[in-house]
Design goal:
Number of helices: 0
Structural class: mainly beta
Strand content: over 45%
Number of strands: 33
Length: about 375
């Protein structure tokens, strides 16, 4: 590719020199947040990127470090850590998955497209998938089964990757059934893997919500349970039917006629039900549920198993899990729930541009170097 102007002229105000017909030297130290638009370049034969591909550009990423909370220890060890929007640590922390946000889904509203990279200590990064459709950054559809295997789900396909061999094996393929996987959760206590899916029920826009249980060690499907039916509209954002596994039991969300409900099943087999979908839960029979509201953010309630729900006061903020912790973000700062004082406290992190990897599992966050 060559630019329309002669070699040596600046590109978007930055010094750039074409070394040959295929190579350009650009001083990235002069690039801040501006992108280098590649539609301005033409090949010698006249080919070029059309205007609608303006998003195909070069960006400069700020260098980031990934740390764990609350000890603030660096957990990332790759030169490519700055490109990851989320880190998913293996149980032994010798490997991790780097998730790269590739933009909005072109097929379903509200979903994201992501790339998945495997990082192993002492080895080069390995691109597992360049584009996963429907596996958003906030969806629980990528996780480790153990230190040697992880599972990632692309709506209708579930794939297990084995670190020892580099082999990919299918767990399920729903391309012919129309089922869509929404959530997954690993139960280390009883040795199970749970997958929540929605399956067409026959009537227009009516879907059956199912929970599948696989044996964790050999991934054999043990049973499929119906959680109810829900109306889903094509091309709209898929609803949430979260599932949370804790030491004292399992929380899973089921559809309701007006409001989704959360069921908690203890390790002893007893069950309780409350209004709303589960957002967060700890190992002591306490959970936070999200309920419908006139406000877009919804309302949140605190649920002590065996007791009544009570409102959890949040001011213009989203409540989310940060590893085992409960945090909020009102767009200005993060706060963490102090269970001893029963109130929100400022999240004590280092100064700088901080972003939390708001998800289940390990509490990790990124910080500009």
């Amino acid at each position: 590719m060559i630019r329309k102007e002669e070699a040596g002229r600046s590109v978007n105000g930055y010094p750039a020199v074409w070394l040959d017909d295929r190579t350009m030297s650009l001083d990235v130290r002069r690039v801040n947040r501006a992108a280098l638009d590649l539609t301005q370049f033409h090949s010698q034969s006249g080919n070029y990127l059309p205007e609608e591909y303006r998003y195909v550009a070069l960006y400069k990423k700020q260098p980031l470090s990934w740390l764990s909370y609350p000890d603030s220890e660096v957990v990332g060890f790759s030169p490519y850590d700055s490109f990851y929007d989320r880190l998913i640590l293996s149980p032994d922390r010798e490997s991790y998955l780097g998730v790269i946000d590739r933009g909005r889904s072109k097929s379903r509203r509200g979903d994201r497209q992501v790339a998945l990279v495997l990082e192993q200590r002492g080895r080069d990064p390995l691109l597992i998938e360049p584009m996963l459709e429907g596996s958003g950054l906030s969806h629980a559809t990528i996780d480790w089964l153990d230190a040697g295997r992880f599972l990632y789900v692309e709506e209708k396909l579930g794939t297990v990757y084995h670190l020892a061999t580099g082999e990919k094996t299918p767990l399920f393929d729903e391309t012919s059934t129309g089922s869509i996987a929404l959530e997954m959760a690993v139960d280390d206590v009883d040795g199970y893997l749970y997958i929540v899916l929605v399956r067409p029920a026959g009537d227009k826009n009516l879907y059956r919500v199912e929970k599948r249980t696989y044996r964790l060690h050999d991934l054999v499907l043990e049973k499929t349970e119906s959680l109810g039916e829900a109306l889903l509209h094509p091309r709209e954002k898929l609803p949430a039917f979260p599932i949370r596994v804790r030491k004292d039991g399992i929380y899973y969300t089921i559809p309701g006629p007006t409001e989704n409900k959360t069921v908690f099943v203890s390790r002893k087999g007893k069950s309780w039900t409350a209004e709303g979908e589960v957002v967060w839960a700890n190992d002591h029979s306490q959970a936070v549920l999200k309920r419908k509201s006139d406000e877009e953010a919804g309302t949140y309630t605190w649920w002590q198993i065996g007791g009544r729900q009570r409102e959890l006061h949040v001011t213009r903020a989203e409540v989310m899990p940060f590893g085992p912790y409960l945090v909020t973000n009102d767009g200005l700062r993060y706060q963490i729930w102090d269970d001893r004082r029963k109130r929100w406290e400022p999240l004590d992190l280092a100064e700088g541009d901080i972003r939390l990897s708001a998800a289940e599992g390990n509490a990790v966050y990124s910080r500009q170097r």
